Every structure is written in structure tokens, then in C-alpha cells.
Description:
The chain is mainly α. The chain has one domain. The protein has seven helices and two strands, in the order ααααααββα. A two-stranded antiparallel ribbon has the order 1-2. Helix 4 (64-75) crosses helix 5. The radius of gyration is 17 Å and the shape is elongated. The two termini are 29 Å apart.
Amino acid sequence: MNWSVYNDSLVRRGEILLDFSILDAWDGEVERMNAGRRGRPFVYPDSLIRLLASMRRLLFHLPYRQLEGFTRGLSRYVDGLRAPDYTTLDRRVNRLNLSIDDALISSDEPVYIALDSTGIGVHKSGDWIRRGSMLGRDT
């Protein structure tokens, strides 16, 4: 067994790559969500709630209070990121229809979570690369 390669694969399992371009679309998404809405307006876009819910479920298995703490800590390093409180997270996550394939969760293959302002995509190893190649993107 090549221990160096094996060790590197174990280290890569802990890599988390986040694209914070979601923050560029934050105000526009919240404005669209609040259009025609009665009552208290939304402050956090659904795309952020989906990202945090996916991180909570797939990566860290955090209770909502700890997810709030994680997001607060992250907001110190990411300009424009405002952390929702745990009650908001709980309510909003439970309102969204989030279905992440259980096969991805229990898979031994790497799982890639891609997020942009249009939503979240979850793919097994290679799916993301094949899909990008089919769309004519260099990956």
C-alpha cells in the first residue's frame, strides 16, 4: 500500500470548499423572496439556509445552536456574511423541502457540494466532473 497516497486521501476528506459568491446575490434574492409578502420580511436568503442545512446534515451533524456558532465564527472571516440565530435556522430549514439522496450520505466515494446563487447541487465523485464536461466547461 502506498501510505503517502492513502494519507493524502484521508486529508482530502476534510477539505471544505465554499464559494461565497452567494453573498453577491444575497440582497436580490431576499428582495425577491419578500416581494408581495405579508408579515415580517425575510433577512436570510434560502440559498444560505440550504447551504447551512447541508453542512449541518452532511458534514458536521451539528445541533442548530452549534450551527449558529459555526456561522458566527465563519462570518468573522467572510465580509457580508450575517449569521442567523438557531431559532431562525430551525424554522427555515424545516420549511424548505431539502432532499439529499441518502445514497450520497452513505457512499464511500467523495461527495461534492456545489453552491451558487441558483441553489445547491450534490454529486458523487466524478458526477460533477462529467457533468461539467458535458456542459463544455473545463474542470
